[in-house]
Design brief:
single chain; alpha+beta; Double Stranded RNA Binding Domain; three-stranded antiparallel β-sheet; 1 helix; 3 strands; globular
Length: 59
């Protein structure tokens, strides 16, 4: 699994990140960011905090 920071087509918020599985399938996509540093910071936050996350079933 890996995180990818991508520059998309938006001119106002071109950067986003996605999580890609080892088989190449995209698992999750973030919101868009104005600057690449913000996207990178969000990735770092997810990596740091995801281990302690819980599952909340709202169904």
């Amino acid at each position: 699994m890996k995180f990818q920071i991508v520059k998309g087509k938006s001119t106002t918020q071109p950067y986003f990140w996605r999580i890609v599985a080892s088989n190449g399938e995209t698992i999750a996509v973030s919101e868009n960011y104005v600057v690449k540093a913000s996207a990178r910071s969000a990735v770092e936050s997810v990596i740091k905090n995801a281990a302690g996350a819980t599952i909340e079933d709202l169904s």
